[in-house]
Structures are given as structure tokens and as C-alpha cells.
Amino acid sequence: MKLFIVAGARPNFMKIAPLIKAVDEIRSQGSSLEYILVHTGQHYDYNMSGSFFEQLGIPKPDIHLNSGSGTQAEQTASIMVAFEKVLIVHKPDLVIVVGDVTSTMACSISAKKLNIEVAHIEAGIRSYDNSMPEEINRLVTDSISDYFFTTTQWATDNLVNSGIATERIFLVGNTMIDTLLANLKKLTKPDFYDEQGLSQKTYFTLTLHRPSNVDNYSKLKNILNVISEQVHDIPVVFPVHPRTRKILDDNGFSSNSFILVEPMGYHDFIFTIKNCKGIITDSGGITEEATVLDIPCLTLRNTTERPETVEYGTNVLIGDDMNKLSTAIRKIINNDWKTGKVPPLWDGKTSQRITEILNHLAEKIEH
Ligand code: UD1
Q1: What is the C-alpha separation between 174 and 151, in angstroms, rounded?
Q2: Catalytic-residue membership of 267
Q3: Residue 119: what are its φ and ψ, rounded to 5°?
Q4: Per residue in 297-338, pLDDT tens?
Q5: I need a surface site. Which of 91, 117, 137, 220 has the fewest CB within 10 A?
Q6: Atom of ligand 1 at shortest distance to CA of 9?
Q7: CA-to-CA distance for 163 and 157, rounded, in angstroms?
Q8: Any bridge partners for residue 237, and if so which?
């Protein structure tokens, strides 16, 4: 069975890395699974893409669509057009998409329009906030996929409640956590760490990139001011996403509280969050990593598509409530925080479970 494995943006790379290793492994045991790796080019900078391929040992993409940036519609359209062309040439049996980025949705649509089956890894999660582009990507992808690999029972239930047949849904766990656990021994200390006098639990980590937090400068500045007031002299490591960098630079932002750095490579970033006192973020994936690493985490969003990080984990939803943010930062500083539990099946073996299921599917198709 010929698979297309698709990745496009930073959070996809951690999800495909262990899957590719697991497919290679099962192939070495005689499986007929084979894959072609497609990079859509949604993220294209070395910091956002190339460094992840190097550090996570992902092979060079077989096909690069070079789609690049643009508005949501421009990005979707250019990925769809380029992906359709390679589907017609290579005729895969199954397209595997991961996560909820624009590439995930665009490639699913192109495949299904050519009657090619689609498997979605990290299916079924929902923020129920349709103002997020990722929620639209999740809804569209799950409405046309053929096979659904889920991270939690809640995600499975969401799919069942939307009418998807249970035999197409596989609760397998979290491939991003496969990558986290496989890399814990390979972490690297960032160059700035010693220069800035950082050590274990003496600093916070901040990431912000959601349009709802960063596109309006006065909102972004207010968040940064509140954080700066509450942490006093505790430094905040702030790897700045390109979208956020642009608005900060355009407005001449400067502050002594923040150590502003470029987007970090995987090993440096996980080292940084594993050793910090607390994380403030609007990312979804980081809340999962914080849960497994048992690091206090504050999410600057009103909703989450990953409620297990709040129920089981170390995450708390702050939304837009700056008083709640202040109180939570003080609680973290005072070591007054809940302890995380790891959700079931987030055990580092998810990709193996997925490839075993794919192998069964291949055997069915071939007989
Ligand atoms: C995308 C995903 C989001 C994910 C995030 C992680 C969607 C809808 N959103 O958001 O779910 O959490 O990636 O980073 O797919 N840019 C660069 N270099 C790059 C990539 C982007 O400079 O390598 C710039 C773009 O030109 C654009 C901005 O960053 O100005 C946003 O990029 P885009 O891919 O549209 O969305 P993200 O905000 O990164």
C-alpha cells in the first residue's frame, strides 16, 4: 500500500517523525507499506521547518510543494492545486494528514476530490470556536476523512456523536508525545541560556502566535505588560513566532522582562520548557507537552480542543481575563500548582499502534 504522508507547518513535523520511523520499522519486518513524504511548504524558514527535519531525523521530503504564505484562502488554494498534481502522478492508496493546520485540510480536500482515501491523525478534537482557522480545518478534514486516529476517548466520542462509524475510529494516543519521550535524552541547552544566567525553575517561557492575541498590538502589549508586572525580576524566555515578530517590530516593542529569541529548534525548546518554572502560551501542542513534563501551564485562550490538558494535566485556561492571569502567575511563583497526570495511551507507542492498523488495512486491500 502506497501512503502519502503530508506535513506542512511546524506542529506537523513532531507528529510525522515517529510515524515515519514506525513505518520504516514495520517495512523492515516485511510489511508492504511504503510512503512518499510530501512537504507543502506552508512553513518554509529553517527555524520553522528545516531544523525540525534535522533534529527529529525526518528524511528529506520526496515532494516539496513550495506553497508558502498568504491569506487563508490563498494558502488553501495553492496547496490544493499543487497537491492535486502530485496525487494524479503518484496515485497513492491512502493520504495521511496530521493535526489541524491549513495544509491538513487542503490536502484532504484534494485527495477526496480524486476519490483517494484519507486518514486523519489527531482527529476529533474540537475547540467549538469557529473563529479559529484550525477549528474549520478540523471540521472539514474530519467530515471527509475515511480513517480517524484519536488521542483521547473525548475525541473519539466527538466523532461518534457526529455520525462517524465506530469501526473507522481508532483510539491510539498521541504521536507528538511519542516524539517528546523519544527525544528527552537528546535535549540541548540553548546558546543564550548560560549567557542570560538561567537555571532550573528560575524563569518562565512564553509563546504567542494566535491571530486573536497578536494581530491587535494594544491587546498584545497589554498581555506582555501584565506578565512583566507579575514576574517582577524573573526572566521570561520568549521565542517569537514570525507573525508576532512582525507586529512587535512594527511597533518598536522593547522590555527588560523578556528574553526575545528566534523560534527555537525542538531540542532547545523542550529543554527550555522542561526546566522552566511555568509556561504561558496560546499553543495547543505545548499544553500537551507541559502536561507530560508536569510543568505549570497557562493558556491565553477561552477554549481548548485539548480538555485533557486541563482535566488531567497542568494547564489552566486564562482566556482574556488579565486578573486571572496575574493571580495564576503569582500562584506558580509560590509553587501553588496542581500536579499533572498523563492521559491514557500517551506512552510513546502511538505510532507503532497506527502502523499496525495501517498494515491490517493494507492486508485487507491486497487480499
Ligand atoms: C500555523 C497554524 C497553527 C500553528 C502554527 C505554528 C494554520 C491555520 N495555523 O499558524 O495552527 O499553531 O502554524 O507555528 O495552519 N511565516 C514565516 N516563516 C515561516 C512560516 C510562516 O515568516 O516559515 C510567516 C508567514 O509569512 C505569515 C505568518 O508567519 O506572515 C503566519 O504563518 P502561517 O503559516 O500563515 O500561520 P501560523 O500563524 O504560523
Answers
A1: 5
A2: no
A3: -115, 135
A4: 999 999 999 999 999 999 999 999 999 999 999 999 999 999
A5: 91
A6: 13
A7: 10
A8: 205, 259
